[in-house]
Write a structure and sequence with these properties.
With about 160 residues, the protein is α+β, with helices and mostly antiparallel strands. The chain has five helices and ten strands; from the N terminus they run αβαβββαβαβββαββ. Strand 7 and strand 8 form a beta hairpin. It starts with 12 loop residues before the first helix and ends with a strand.
Length: about 160
Amino acid sequence: MAKKQRKQQGGTPATVALTAAGTAFAVHAYEHDPASPSYGEEAAEALGVAPERVFKTLVADVDGELTVAVVPVAGQLDLKALATAVGGKRAAMADPAAAERTTGYVRGGISPLGQRKRLRTVLDASASAHPTICVSAGRRGLEVELAPADLASLTDAVLAPIGRA
């Protein structure tokens, strides 16, 4: 993994944020298939990375506040666990248009990094079991690989068991 990547033409807000923070990361691009039923599973397969190490970024509404959940693509988000992790009572998936408008990213390319409006973030505790994980770099077909601790630090994420198999 590169020590840090210089801002390149066509960089995303996520890669710009990582570069500005001086965080070690690597960018992985792949050819996105618009017909793919699962963006995360597509990324894992295209990159040859175990699905447990590729994390999807989901936006949920917890008691009226948009909240980011970062969970392995191999599983699902436990909405009740997400609500509990942030001291809320009820969680539901956010309206996709609201998620896109608030984060500045398109569905399937929402990154936990470099969002237009910084949202409260919860990272599934399973991320800690890996030296690096992959998350969206801010567009379909582009992932960033970084240490889970760096992702948690840069997003002020709470680590909690919010994923389920």
